C-alpha cells in the first residue's frame, strides 16, 4: 500500500539520505512532504522526486501523514512524536530518545522485524550498533554469544554535515601548513583520532559506547550477553569500521560461519585476505550492505572465539537505509490491514 | 663511557630519529659515523652533531665501532650483524630478523634491562609492541595477565618516509577531487583505513599481528599470556594508537593501577575524561613518553578486567627512542667493564 510519507529533518545529512533511499528502493509513496527547521521553511529542496518545498517541522500537522521519518536530534522527538502518533501517523525515529523505552521496538529488519508489532513509534538504532548487529545476530543464532568486545573506527559523518565539512577544510589547513582548527569536534580531527564520542558516563564509558551495549542486547533480545565497546573518531568521511571479538556458547565452525554470512541478507562478505580483500571505508561507502571480513579464529578463546572486522556506511545501514527498511515493514503492515 | 657509535641506515626515517635522539639525550658519543645504501654514500647529512659524510653500509668496517644501530630492513641485518659482532661491536637491530632467536635479547629498557646481559646483538621490538608493553608490564607485575586483546590504529610512518609522503600527497589529490592513488600501501589511505599490515600468515593473522603476540610474551617473559591483536593502518602521520583490553589473574584496583601508571617511567598519564583529556596522536607525536588513558573497568571481566587506550610516537618509543635507551644500557655496561 502506498503511504503518505513525511521526512522531518529533511535538510540534514540523514534526512537527505532517507529521501534518496526511499527513491532508490522504490518505496511505496503516495505523497512525500519534507520538513525542517523554521530557518529552512519555505525554501525548496532538490530531490530525486523533484523539487519539493520545505515546511516548518515545528508546525507539522500529522493528520495528513501515515508515516513520518524523524531525523532531528536532541529534544525535538520527545516533544513531537506524541503529536504524530496521536494523529494516527506511524513514526520511525532516528534519535536515541525512545530506544531504551520498553514499549518502543528497536528494529534491525534483518534481525527482529516481528518486533514492530502494532507499534506506532519505532526506534532506529545507533549507527555503530546497526552496522555490527547483523554478524552478531548470525553468530548469536547459530553458536550463542557470551562476550562481545568492540573497538570502533568511526567516521566524521556521525557528527553531521558540519563535521564532514570541518574534516575536509581543516585537512586542507593542515596540508597547507596552517594549524588545523576545530569546532564540531573536541580536537582537530585531520591526521588525528579522538577516543571520545558523546559525553562520558559515571562508569567512564561514553554514552555512545553504552548505546552499543544497551541497543545490541535489546535488538538481539538477550540481556545476558556481556558487551564492551570503545568508540573512536577517525579522520574518515562516512563509513564506520569496527574490530569485533566474540566469545560464543558453542564451538564455532569457521567455514560454516563464513558460509552463513556469505548468504546473509544485508552482508557483503569481503574475506579473502590472500587477495587483499577485506572491509574498508573506501569500498563500503555508498553501499547498502555491510562489509564483513578478516574472519579468524580467536587466539584466546580457541574454538569458542571468533574475531572479525566490519565496515558499513554510517549514513545508510547506520541510519537512513535501516530507517527505510523499517518503513517497508510498516508499509507491509498497512497493506495487510487494508487487505 | 663514551662510545664510537655508528648508525646504519642513517638516511631513513628511523635512522634520522636515532641521530636526533642520541643528540637530545646526550648519549655518550666518542665519535659518530653514518652509513646508508651505496646510492647515498659520499653525500652528507645535516644532523644536530653537524654535517656528516655518509658511508656505504655494505662496506662498513666495524673494527672502528663499539656500538652500531641497525635501521635497515629485510635481509640486510642477517648478512651484516655477524660482521659487526665478530669485530667486537655491539649491535642494536631495529628489524624483526633476530627478535625471535632464543639467544638474542628483545629489550624494552623500562621492563627487562637485565636481559641484555653480555649480548653483542640486541633486538629492538616492533613499534606496536613497544608502545603497548609498558602498561602491560605494570599490569602483569601487579595483577598478573591472563588475556590481552589489542586493536590498533597505526600511522603511516610505520611504512617509512615514502608512506608518509604518499599519505600527504594523495590526501591533497582526494581533496582536489582527483582519485587518490597508492604505491606504498595496498590501497589509497586518505580518508580510508586498511586492516592489513604486513603479509597474512596461514592462521589468517598478519605477521605484524603475530609479532605483537610473540614479542610481548618474550619481553614480559611469560608464554602463558594469551594475546590477540588486529593491526589496522589509519590516515595518521606518525603516532600509533591501541585499544587494549586485558583480563588479569588478580582483581585490579583501578585507583592503584592509575597511581602506578602515573609514576611509571616512560608513561604520560592522560586520563581525565571529564576534562576531555585522553591519549591522541595530536598530543603523542614527538613525545618520548607513551600516553595512557581511557582507563576503565571492563564491562565483561569485572574486577579481573581493565581496558585502556595508549598512544605513542611510532618513530620514538616505537623505534628510535627505545633503540637509544638500549644503547644507554650498553654504554653503562661498557662503563662497568672499564671501571
Major sheet summary line of chain A: 7 strands, mixed
Cα-to-Cα separation, first versus last residue of chain A: 9 Å
Query: Overall 3D geometry of chain A?
Result: globular
**CATH C-level of the largest domain in chain A:** Alpha Beta
Biggest sheet strand line-up of chain A? 3-4-2-1-5-6-7
| Mean pLDDT rating of chain A | 97
The helix count of chain A comes to 8
Low-confidence stretches of chain A: none
What is the CATH T-level topology of the largest domain in chain A?
Dihydrodipicolinate Reductase, domain 2
Strand content of chain A: 15-25%
CATH architecture of the largest domain in chain A: 2-Layer Sandwich
Helix content of chain A: 25-40%
Radius of gyration of chain A: 20 Å
Number of domains of chain A: 2
Q: Most extensive interface: pair and counts? A: A-B, 52 and 52 residues
CATH homologous superfamily designation of the largest domain in chain A: Dihydrodipicolinate Reductase, domain 2
How do the helices and strands follow one another from N- to C-terminus of chain A? Answer: EHEEEEHEEHEHHEEHEHEEH
Q: What structural class do the secondary elements of chain A suggest?
A: alpha/beta
Assembly status: homodimer
- Care to count the β-strands of chain A? 13
Amino acid at each position: 500500500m502506498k503511504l503518505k510519507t513525511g521526512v522531518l529533518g529533511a535538510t540534514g545529512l540523514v534526512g537527505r539520505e532517507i529521501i534518496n533511499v526511499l527513491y532508490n528502493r522504490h518505496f511505496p509513496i503516495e505523497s512525500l512532504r519534507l520538513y525542517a527547521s523554521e530557518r529552512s521553511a519555505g525554501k525548496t529542496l532538490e530531490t530525486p522526486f523533484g523539487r519539493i518545498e520545505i515546511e516548518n517541522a515545528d508546525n507539522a500537522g500529522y493528520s495528513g501523514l501515515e508515516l513520518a521519518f524523524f531525523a532531528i536530534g536532541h529534544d525535538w522527538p520527545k516533544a513531537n512524536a506524541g503529536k504524530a502518533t496521536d494523529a494516527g501517523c506511524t513514526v520511525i525515529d532516528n534519535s536515541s530518545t525512545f530506544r531504551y523505552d520498553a514499549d518502543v521496538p528497536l528494529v534491525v529488519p534483518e534481525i527482529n522485524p516481528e518486533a514492530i508489532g502494532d507499534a506506532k513509534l519505532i526506534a532506529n538504532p545507533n549507527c555503530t550498533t546497526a552496522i555490527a548487529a547483523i554478524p552478531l545476530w548470525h553468530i548469536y543464532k547459530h553458536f550463542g554469544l557470551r562476550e562481545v568486545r568492540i573497538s570502533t573506527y568511526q567516521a566524521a559523518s556521525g557528527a553531521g554535515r558540519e563535521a564532514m565539512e570541518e574534516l575536509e577544510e581543516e585537512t586542507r589547513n593542515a596540508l597547507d601548513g596552517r594549524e588545523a582548527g576545530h569546532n564540531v569536534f573536541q580536537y582537530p580531527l585531520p591526521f588525528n583520532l579522538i577516543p571520545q564520542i558523546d559525553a562520558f558516563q559515571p562508569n567512564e564509558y561514553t554514552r555512545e559506547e553504552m548505546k552499543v551495549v544497551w541497543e545490541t542486547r535489546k535488538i538481539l533480545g538477550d540481556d545476558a550477553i556481556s558487551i564492551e565497546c570503545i568508540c573512536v573518531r577517525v579522520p574518515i568521511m562516512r563509513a564506520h569500521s569496527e574490530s569485533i571479538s566474540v566469545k560464543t556458547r558453542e564451538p564455532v565452525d569457521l567455514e560454516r560461519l563464513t558460509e552463513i554470512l556469505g548468504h546473509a541478507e544485508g552482508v557483503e562478505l569481503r574475506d579473502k585476505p590472500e587477495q587483499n580483500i577485506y572491509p574498508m571505508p573506501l569500498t563500503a561507502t555508498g553501499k547498502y550492505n555491510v562489509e564483513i571480513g578478516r574472519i579468524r579464529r580467536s587466539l584466546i578463546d580457541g574454538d569458542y572465539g571468533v574475531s572479525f572486522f566490519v565496515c558499513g556506511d554510517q549514513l545508510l545501514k547506520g541510519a537512513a537505509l535501516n530507517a527505510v527498511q523499517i518503513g517497508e515493514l510498516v508499509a507491509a503492515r498497512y497493506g495487510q490491514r487494508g487487505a
